[in-house]
From TrEMBL:
Descriptive protein name: TetR/AcrR family transcriptional regulator
Gene3D superfamilies to which the protein is assigned, alphabetical: Tetracycline Repressor, domain 2 (1.10.357.10)
Pfam families for the chain: TetR_N
Transmembrane parts of this sequence: none
GO-annotated molecular function: DNA binding
Protein source organism: Paenibacillus lutimineralis
Cross-referenced InterPro entries: Homeodomain-like_sf, HTH-type_Tx_Regulator, HTH_TetR
Keywords: DNA-binding
Amino acid sequence: MNTSSCPFRLEKPYNKISIRDICKRADLSRQTFYNCFNEKDDILRFCLKQGFNALSQELAAKKSLQMRDITDSFSAIFLENEVLLQLMLEHHLENIIADELSASLSTFASKCTTDTKNTYIRLLFFLVL
């Protein structure tokens, strides 16, 4: 499986899509699917993690991190994954988005310097308010 298939189309309600449907569309055996994932939600989580990991790496590479860098990077990730996120929202999968965003933010915060953490905390207040 690769990330290029992440923004997949849901031709029927998410809860009606089976692992067999996914494997058929991706031309995979069920065994291959289960070697990589436990359930279909894991595919969505994987896709989101890929985007958030890229975001963390991009931000970590900056020598001086500003609030604008963080907001621009988050905006870019959301825009790049707009189709996937919209599909997830339409199928009431907000919990997966929230879980992965939260995990990504926690991971990012744990790797930050003190100055970056202060910038990050300001961003969180901005997002919450």
